Amino acid sequence: MRTKQQYMEGLGKMKRNLYHNGEKIDRLDEHQMPCINTIGTTYDEAEKPENADLMTAKSHLTGETINRFTHIHQNTEDLHKKQDMTRFLCRKVGGCIQRCMGIDGTNAIYNASYEADKLNNGATEYHENFKKWLERFQTEDLVGCCAQTDVKGDRMKRPADQVDPDLYTRVVEKKSDGIVVRGCKLHISEASVADEVLVVPTRALRPEDKDYALAFAVPGDWDGLKQVVTIHNYRERKHFPRGFMPGATDSYIIFDDMFVPWERVFLCGEYQHGGALALLFALFHRHSYSGCKPAIGDVILGTAALAAEYNGIQKTSHVRDKFAEIIKVTELGYAAGYTVSDLGKPEVYMPGVGFMPYGPGSYIPNSIYCNVGRCLTGEAVFHETEILTDISGGVPATFPYEGDFVNPETKDLLNKYLMRNPDISAENQAQFWRYVGDMLCSATGGINNVGNYHGGGSPIMESIAITTQYDIEERKELVKGLAGIKD
Ligand SMILES: Cc1cc2nc3c(=O)[nH]c(=O)nc-3n(C[C@H](O)[C@H](O)[C@H](O)COP(=O)(O)OP(=O)(O)OC[C@H]3O[C@@H](n4cnc5c(N)ncnc54)[C@H](O)[C@@H]3O)c2cc1C
């Protein structure tokens, strides 16, 4: 396993292909450091003996101890631990831990590459190639991001029907030694600080969409790959640092007729499994949300409770009711994820068919509970923000900059006039409202809300998954029986 320092040294050696606000930047650019520090937590915590059970696993390929973020789930216990590890780490950094895309992408490709080889009756070696790639990923303890979301153009048209065929990522040429890929994946979290980019399709595909049934992995600085990066950091602190300063980045990843050798290609043309892979990645990723969203619920609850206390309204009944609302969503989301893990098996649900074996035997989360949990927590994001806004009042929106709290001309006056609860020092009240301002009123706070709402798929996508997989007919029969209706 690597240390955070070794992870950073790896980033330092990568070629310059990051574009940010009109300039090319290094991976270790100071603006990227909050995100690197966030991911660094996954290395630091894995080193601690008390976290070994949660944060490490035994590789099923080599038998070696590996960071759990590189592991393929071998049983329901692994699914439980992934959920709990995610909640644990997201609490540490106070938000997204930025490393789950890799574990979710690898678990999805591991299964789909196996099925695609089966479909091809052994004519392809996607799965063996993926296992070789995976062994290196595990041994070198690499960070992976997962590039699924395509530009998608006209939402009502399928990939092959778009006016511009490049609006979904596709293979434009097949050669004896590899393929040439063109397209753009967008909103790709932590790609600018990842060692490897895993690419999977966005949606269900038809035979005429087969050029879009594509999965591969390349290093983040591969020739022909450009990243245009948005960096989400909170306002810098000079005088009153936060306990932990998290950060995030998202990239538009442009594949500019990029060559990918066959040994890095894990699906190419098998449209049936392209669609399955799209759903599988979403499924694994929605399971990650059952860890991170409860952690974010913990943070929102703690913030709301402190805001109430600092405003002296913590005992009022409307405030207690609002705490209960946050707790209900948080723990129902966690409970759904727990059930997802417990019911996990090496099978997927095929609408109209039911559960059927899928992949070489690794464990896949239960789809219904996964979608129910992610949808419930995703849709609650803005309501939770509303609760926090309500309890805080207007102060986080207009709170003075930290420099005014060190300027002798304003410092004492501000400390006098910010006072609310007399039992809490002015300094602590000021530090708290700075934190709430980061959450509620910063550009990054807004981006987090959109990410927590849409990440892993818009709520409507989860609703579609739920209604197409849930046995509604069986419920109709149930009620017919209860009502005494005889067809
Ligand atoms: C901060 C952030 C981080 C992200 N990180 C990643 C990442 O690391 N990797 C990754 O692959 N993706 C990532 N995403 C992308 C995320 O998964 C998508 O934003 C999400 O799936 C929604 O897709 P979209 O943005 O294209 O919106 P759309 O799908 O365009 O949704 C807009 C609206 O259109 C509706 N709609 C779309 N298509 C149809 C249709 N055919 N029929 C009817 N209605 C339709 C939707 O339901 C929704 O209401 C991230 C997104 C954010 C915001």
Structure description:
By secondary structure, the protein is α+β, with helices and mostly antiparallel strands. The protein has two domains: 271 residues, Butyryl-CoA Dehydrogenase, subunit A, domain 2, CATH 2.40.110.10; 203 residues, Up-down Bundle (Butyryl-CoA Dehydrogenase, subunit A, domain 3), CATH 1.20.140. Helices cover 48% and strands 16% of the residues. It contains 16 helices and 14 strands. A six-stranded mixed β-sheet has the order 2-1-10-11-7-6. A four-stranded mixed β-sheet has the order 5-8-9-12. A two-stranded antiparallel ribbon has the order 3-4. Helix 7 packs antiparallel against helix 13 and helix 13 crosses helix 14. It is globular. The termini are far apart. The relative contact order is 0.11. The site of flavin-adenine dinucleotide has 21 residues, from strand 5, strand 7 and helix 14.
DSSP strand count? 14
CATH superfamily name of the largest domain? Butyryl-CoA Dehydrogenase, subunit A, domain 2
Instruction: Work out the count of structural domains.
Output: 2
Element-by-element helix/strand order:
HEEHHEEHHHEEEEEEEEHHEEHHHHHHHH
End-to-end C-alpha gap = 63 Å
Under the CATH scheme, which class of the largest domain? Mainly Beta
- What Rg, in angstroms, do the CA atoms define? 24 Å
Secondary structure category = alpha+beta
Major sheet size, sense and barrel closure: 6 strands, mixed
CATH topology of the largest domain: Butyryl-CoA Dehydrogenase, subunit A, domain 2
Q: State which percent range the strand residues make up.
A: 15-25%
Q: Which term fits the overall shape?
A: globular
**CATH architecture title of the largest domain:** Beta Barrel
Q: Work out the helicity level.
A: 40-55%
Widest sheet, order of strands: 2-1-10-11-7-6
Which stretches are low in confidence, meaning pLDDT under 50 for 5 or more residues running?
Answer: none
Task: List the ions, cofactors and other small molecules found in this model.
Answer: flavin-adenine dinucleotide
